[in-house]
Amino acid sequence: MSEAIHESVSVALWSNHAAHSIMPYSVYWHGRRYLITKVGFHHTYREGRVLMHMFSVTDGNTFFKLMFDTETLFWTLVEVETVH
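-> structure tokens emitted (84 positions)
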């Protein structure tokens, strides 16, 4: 079952200039580093004039829904779900 979080997190990402894409590499949350092994989806939407990026990622054990705000350049952990 997923849990709503809505906390600021740090995210390291890969940037590929040739493919014009970015991919989260790791998430730092509550003093722990989660190495991302797969991106499930990535989509964008607007909140007013601000472009938001939404990512669904996993480290193989935990699923994260991450939001990137292009105006503030901050990441938010929206949701988390641990596989049992």
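The radius of gyration is 13 Å.
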